[in-house]
Amino acid sequence: MDVILLHDVQKLGLRGAKVGVTRGYARNYLFPRGLAVQASLAKEKELANQLKAFESRDELQREQAGTLAEAMKDVAITIKAAAGEENLYGSVTTSMISSALTELGHEVEAKQVLLEEPFKKLGTFTVPVRVHRDVEVEVQLTIERA
C-alpha cells in the first residue's frame, strides 16, 4: 500500500515522501497517529502545496536551531547523583539532562537528548542534543557523587 508521510518517520522516510508499507502497518500505526495518509493524486497535489509552506517554516526553525546550537556549543552541565564507588544507585536519564539544560536557559525537551541508554557511572561524558532534525550539538555532562 502506498502512503504519503505527513511527518518524518524514523527508518521510513521524511515528510512528503511517498512510500510503500504493509496494510497493517498503515492501518494500525501510521493512520491512527496521523503520520500518513493513503496516496492519491488529489492528496499528492494538496500535500505539495503544504510542503512548500512547511519548507519555508522549516528554514526559519533551522536558523533558530543554529543560533541555539551555537549558544549551547560550550555548555557543560553537572548532575549530582547518589553513587557507590563508581556506579550510580539509579541512572541519569534524558529528562534529567534536559531539565539541567533548561535551568541554564536552553529550552530542550527530553526527546531531543540522544542517548542509547541512561548513564549509570560517574564521570564526564559527551551528550548529543538534536535541536532540529538537521542541527545537532554536543554538550559536556559531568556526573558527580551527591
Keywords:
about 150 residues; alpha+beta; Ribosomal Protein L9, domain 1; Ribosomal Protein L9, domain 2; 3-stranded antiparallel β-sheet; 3-stranded mixed β-sheet; 3 helices; elongated
Which architecture of the largest domain per CATH?
A: Roll
Distance between the terminal alpha carbons, to the nearest Å? 54 Å
Strand order of the largest sheet: 2-1-3
Share of helical residues: 25-40%
Overview of the structural elements:
The protein has 2 domains: 2-62, Ribosomal Protein L9, domain 1 (3-Layer(aba) Sandwich); 70-145, Ribosomal Protein L9, domain 2. The chain is an alpha+beta fold. The protein is elongated. It has helices spanning 23-30, 41-72, 94-103; strands spanning 2-5, 18-20, 36-38, 76-81, 87-92, 119-121, 123-132, 135-145. Helix content is 34%, strand content 32%. The model has no long low-confidence stretch (mean pLDDT 91). The longest helix has 32 residues, at 41-72.
Provide the fold topology.
Layout: E1 2-5, E2 18-20, H1 23-30, E3 36-38, H2 41-72, E4 76-81, E5 87-92, H3 94-103, E6 119-121, E7 123-132, E8 135-145
Parallel strand pairs: 4-8
Antiparallel strand pairs: 1-2, 1-3, 5-6, 7-8
Provide a compact summary of the structure.
This protein has 146 residues and is an alpha+beta fold. The protein has helices spanning 23-30, 41-72, 94-103; strands at residues 2-5, 18-20, 36-38, 76-81, 87-92, 119-121, 123-132, 135-145.
